[in-house]
């Protein structure tokens, strides 16, 4: 089989991925082996592959492939999330292009369009993950809106409701006017923004007096229900019990007193708008104020907005400020920086809004999850620093708003049968709901037509928090074979931004429904940033096309590039040069493989240098394997890769192959060749999780293999004892070889020219590597001496001195002249440094590190002068 001169990633990757899929290496079913399970953080069904996905899924694939090589039954469950808000927004936009308004459709009609869109565009990202080499069990692919997944979600809702943990309440919620749905507190991102503080005068009823308030939202005055003053504020004592008149709509409102008001902020007076501020709502309930909602669902003003009805809130803000100023109500405006809540999904500024919503009580549910991570340590977070974040969220947890005003999602299984606040039942089917409604109401005449299902759907996270269980049907069938075998899963790889949204909630759900953790370890990746430390984003144009990177550098090159500087929890400064480095590494390995395959093998005796080289590398491999195992145990995957990288690039390609390489046109002995091939195979095994395609290609070239012998299902190398003394001996010998090569380079002594070599063995080093030194230094005669050799070039390694007799290899006179000039320069340099150090003002006044640097220069110069003098003595 001829070996191509160049490695072509594009043909190799498709070939081996198809081969792996055909032979079902990724598929897992329960058996007697130890399971190793990962569930994918389900990307949005609307998503396409970006750098964050690439990093996250590369890490998962590394872990899964290694587990497979370790003989474990590896199962990586893929899937997608229905992403209620994001997907519905895309469907609405698509309908708009066709001239269709979502509001003109029934729920069933909209869902038809949503499923049509999902089937056409959804799941693209999973196909893209195959290009990266991800070895997911595609037969197990799940979607959070699959029938069985939805059934699990509904089952959990009903169970929690029956336990008294889910309730319906009229609350102030975060409203996204663009998506027209409520959001949980955790989905609101607070940003500092520059705004204005508007000072407005309110007339006092039956008086010429005015009271001045400061507000950041002048448009909301149309919903004012009161003016509030602090009872301890002497400035306003005379206004107690009086009433004020709201500008523009002339509504009369009471002036109330409450210590909640901050005397120091603004004017010390507060306008109270219970429908549009969480704190105002509390004041409104306490003082029994009227609630006036001035906004439509899309944040335009409603009929309470006077002549601004139908206009957007921000347009109204500008226009109403002008009107208030022209009519003498607005007396001044100041710039003001404050925090504004925005929707995590749509980036829209959220509105506080009063509405009926469904909530899950979290305080009791959270306790086992807190204990698991922070006390019992049954779940490990990597890096550990995220335990503090986890503690903060979980110990300050609030009830979870789980309802959303959307069509796309699992519809809440609550059925209303009357107009009363509590006239509803919760059931899996409308038929079951009818039975419950008859019992609850006492009205046996109720029919199916009397019931109306809640139009809201459940928060997307309410389905994904069940993911590690629901993908194995563990909610509907809690004793099935899959859930008993694969749960709890082993590792979860995700971003720290969803530590609370997803990770913490899965831990809560796992303890509630399986009475145990959902996973053992959580590995948090960092954000992928550009070279300037900016977050990757479409708007900045700094996010490369993931598939284009794979096309340019190969999947293996991109995987290596991503992992080389991606320590757990730390942001990755992405640079395409890293992918180029990964590609170059692949080419280096390919060329090393071609070199080995190009050797002629003969039944000849193994040279001493080859035997030593093989023994050294086998020990080096074992030492490195211990380091790699340690890195994996601590989830330092970039360190594991870098350790593997150095072993193969430096020790294998640069040292071992050079040491065993036969002379030009000479054969290699069979024993050495077979040992080198076995070593290459071991290298391929530890590299396979990082570079699956290249390693499988070389593995299959080395020998005719059956499907059962493919690298993907080979065995991870075993840890074996090794002799550390041979490693120490090599370190010394490699320094000697480097010294010889330096002299050859400096003196232009061609490598083809053999040289003599003498050793003054003051260090009493082993002579075991003499054969290696002789080969790599092209030495004709290596001997030991008890005296300094005159008329020779020399260098030192520790206290050993090495000599290369000058003979005819160099111009002695010219070399002496060169050394004398260098000595003269170094002595002059030393004097200048010592002069500076003898200056007390410099030593006492300069920074400590500057003085230390000068002292190091002095020591280096003294050592160099000693070496130069010794070299001159040897030549004279």
What can you tell me about this protein's structure?
With 876 residues, this protein is an alpha/beta fold. Among the domains are: 181-351, Alpha-Beta Complex (Isoleucyl-tRNA Synthetase, domain 2), CATH 3.90.740.10; 546-722, Orthogonal Bundle (Isoleucyl-tRNA Synthetase, Domain 1); 748-875, Helix Hairpins (Orthogonal Bundle). Helix content is 44%, strand content 18%. The chain has 26 helices and 31 strands. Strands 7, 8, 9, 10, 11, 12 and 13 form a 7-stranded mixed sheet that branches. Strand 7 (188-204) and strand 8 (210-215) form a beta hairpin. Helix 1 crosses helix 21, helix 16 (546-563) packs across helix 17 and helix 22 runs parallel beside helix 23 (770-777). It is globular, with a radius of gyration of 37 Å. The mean pLDDT is 91.
Write the layout of secondary structure elements.
Blueprint: H1 9-22, E1 35-39, H2 51-69, E2 73-77, E3 79-80, H3 84-97, H4 107-121, H5 124-132, E4 142-143, H6 147-162, E5 166-176, E6 181-183, E7 188-204, E8 210-215, E9 226-229, E10 243-245, E11 252-257, E12 269-272, H7 278-287, H8 313-326, E13 330-343, E14 351-360, H9 363-375, E15 380-382, H10 386-395, E16 400-401, E17 403-404, E18 414-416, E19 424-426, H11 430-441, E20 452-453, E21 457-458, H12 461-464, H13 467-470, H14 481-486, E22 489-494, H15 499-513, E23 519-524, E24 528-529, H16 546-563, E25 572-573, H17 576-597, E26 601-602, H18 608-633, H19 637-660, E27 668-669, H20 670-687, H21 692-702, H22 724-746, E28 755-760, H23 770-777, E29 779-785, E30 792-797, E31 800-805, H24 812-837, H25 840-845, H26 848-875
Parallel strand pairs: 1-2, 3-4, 9-11, 15-23, 22-23, 24-25, 26-27, 28-29
Antiparallel strand pairs: 5-6, 5-14, 7-8, 7-10, 7-13, 9-12, 10-11, 14-16, 17-21, 18-19, 18-20, 28-31, 30-31
Helix pairs in contact: 1-21, 2-16, 3-4, 9-10, 9-15, 16-17, 17-19, 18-19, 18-20, 18-22, 18-23, 19-20, 20-21, 22-23, 24-26
């Amino acid at each position: 089989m001829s070996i191509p001169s160049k490695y072509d990633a594009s043909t190799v990757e498709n070939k081996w991925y198809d081969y792996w899929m055909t032979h079902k290496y990724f598929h897992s079913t329960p058996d007697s082996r130890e399971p190793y399970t990962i569930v994918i953080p389900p990307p949005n069904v609307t998503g396409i592959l970006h750098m964050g996905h690439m990093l996250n899924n590369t890490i998962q694939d590394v872990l899964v492939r290694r587990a497979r090589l370790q003989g474990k039954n590896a199962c990586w469950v893929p899937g997608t999330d229905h992403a209620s808000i994001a997907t519905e927004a895309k469907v609405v936009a698509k309908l708009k292009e066709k001239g269709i308004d979502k509001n003109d459709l029934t729920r069933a009609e909209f869902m038809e369009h949503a499923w049509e869109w999902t089937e056409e565009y959804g799941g693209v990202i999973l196909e893209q993950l195959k290009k990266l080499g991800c070895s997911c069990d595609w037969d197990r692919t799940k979607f959070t809106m699959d029938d069985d997944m939805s059934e699990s979600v509904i089952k959990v809702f009903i169970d929690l409701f029956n336990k008294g943990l889910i309730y319906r309440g009229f609350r102030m919620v975060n409203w996204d006017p663009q998506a027209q749905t409520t959001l949980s507190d955790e989905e609101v991102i607070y940003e500092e923004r520059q705004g204005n503080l508007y000072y407005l005068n309110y007339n006092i009823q039956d008086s010429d007096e005015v009271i001045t308030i400061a507000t950041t939202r002048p448009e909301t005055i149309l919903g004012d229900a009161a003016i509030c003053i602090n009872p301890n504020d002497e400035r306003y004592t005379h206004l107690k019990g009086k009433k004020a008149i709201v500008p523009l709509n002339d509504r009369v409102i009471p002036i109330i007193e409450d210590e909640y008001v901050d005397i120091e902020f603004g004017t010390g007076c507060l306008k109270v708008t219970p429908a549009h501020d969480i704190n105002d709502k509390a004041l409104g309930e306490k003082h029994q104020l009227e609630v006036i909602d001035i906004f439509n669902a899309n944040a335009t003003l409603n009929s309470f907005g006077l002549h601004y009805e139908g206009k957007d809130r921000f347009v109204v803000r500008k226009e109403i400020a002008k009107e208030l100023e022209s009519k003498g109500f607005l007396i001044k405006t100041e710039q003001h920086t404050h925090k504004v809540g925005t929707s995590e999904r749509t980036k829209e500024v959220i509105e506080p809004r009063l509405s009926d919503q469904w909530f899950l009580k979290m305080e009791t549910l959270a306790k086992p999850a807190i204990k698991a991570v922070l006390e019992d340590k049954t779940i490990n977070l990597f890096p550990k620093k995220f335990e503090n974040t986890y503690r903060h969220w979980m110990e300050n947890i609030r009830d979870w708003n789980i309802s959303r005003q959307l069509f796309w999602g699992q519809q809440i299984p609550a059925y209303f049968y009357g107009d009363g606040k509590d006239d509803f039942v919760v059931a899996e089917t409308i038929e079951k709901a009818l039975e419950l409604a008859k019992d609850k109401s006492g009205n046996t005449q109720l029919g199916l037509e009397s019931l109306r299902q809640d139009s809201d759907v459940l928060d997307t996270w309410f389905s994904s928090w069940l993911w590690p269980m629901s993908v194995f049907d563990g909610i509907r069938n809690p004793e099935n074979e899959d859930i008993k075998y694969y749960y709890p899963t082993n590792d979860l790889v995700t971003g720290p931004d969803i530590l609370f949204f997803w990770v913490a909630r899965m831990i809560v759900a796992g303890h509630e429904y399986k009475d145990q953790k959902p996973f053992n370890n959580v590995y948090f990746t960092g954000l992928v940033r550009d070279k300037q430390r900016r977050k990757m984003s479409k708007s900045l144009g700094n996010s490369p096309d993931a598939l284009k990177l794979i096309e340019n550098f190969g999947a293996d090159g991109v995987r290596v590039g991503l992992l080389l500087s991606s320590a757990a929890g730390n942001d990755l400064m992405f640079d395409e040069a890293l992918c180029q480095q990964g590609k170059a590494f692949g080419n280096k390995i390919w060329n090393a493989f071609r070199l080995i395959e190009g050797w002629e093998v003969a039944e000849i005796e193994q040279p001493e240098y080859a035997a030593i080289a093989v023994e050294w590398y086998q020990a080096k491999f074992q030492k490195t394997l211990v380091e790699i195992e340690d890195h994996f145990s601590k989830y330092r995957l970039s360190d594991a890769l870098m350790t593997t990288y150095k072993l193969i690039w430096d020790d294998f390609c640069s040292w071992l192959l050079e040491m065993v390489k036969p002379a030009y046109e000479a054969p290699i002995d069979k024993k050495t060749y077979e040992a080198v091939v076995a070593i290459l195979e071991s290298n391929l095994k530890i590299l396979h999780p990082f570079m699956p395609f290249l390693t499988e290609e070389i593995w299959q070239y080395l020998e005719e293999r059956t499907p059962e012998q493919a690298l993907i299902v080979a065995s991870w190398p075993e840890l074996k004892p090794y002799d550390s003394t041979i490693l120490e001996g090599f370190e010394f010998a490699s320094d000697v070889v480097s010294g010889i090569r330096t002299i050859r380079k400096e003196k232009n002594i061609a490598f083809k020219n053999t040289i003599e070599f003498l050793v003054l063995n003051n260090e009493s080093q082993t002579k075991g590597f003499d054969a290696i030194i002789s080969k790599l230094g092209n030495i004709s005669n290596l001997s030991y001496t008890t005296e300094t050799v005159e008329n020779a070039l020399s260098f030192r390694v520790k206290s050993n001195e090495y000599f290369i007799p000058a003979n005819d290899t160099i111009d002695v006179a010219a070399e002496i002249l060169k050394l004398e000039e260098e000595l003269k320069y170094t002595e002059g340099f030393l004097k200048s440094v010592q002069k500076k150090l003898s200056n007390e003002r410099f030593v006492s006044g300069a920074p400590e590190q500057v003085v230390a640097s000068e002292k190091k220069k002095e020591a280096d110069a003294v050592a160099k002068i000693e070496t130069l003098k010794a070299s001159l003595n040897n030549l004279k």
